[in-house]
# Entry
Amino acid sequence: MIEEKWLEMNIDNIMRNLIQCEDHLRYLKRNYKPEHASCVIKHLYMVEGEAQEAISHSSVVDESKVEVFQKVFDKTVELRKKIQNREITPSEAIKRIREIRKLVGDLNPIYSEEHCMACKYFHSVLRLAENPVLFIGSYILVALIVLLIIYLLFF
# Structure
């Protein structure tokens, strides 16, 4: 079915443009002017268009995905308008981009960073960093283990 190929292309293009947005936002200053974000806005328009096409294609291929692409579309429009009106900081926009990307990533494990073994350590450190007690506790535990190894090797 040709719609399956088109839907796959839509998903790839959504992911590609969201990653481009995130990359551009990293270099955008907090006190940006809307025209400074023109590239980001262009990529978000691309995501909107691809999401609209994906709604159509998924209605033929797998109707359960229609709702996901509608959410991608709605959240992308909302984010684009916030950026255009300077109602959001670049770092907060990056968080929103990642939320949108996760919606698409949840459709297929190949798109999800949660399954990436290369990122697994990074994600576990992020989870620890979100909880200061666990974060500090883990460093103390590692330090104690290192001291124990040194003691066993040299004493």
Notes: The chain has a mean pLDDT of 87.
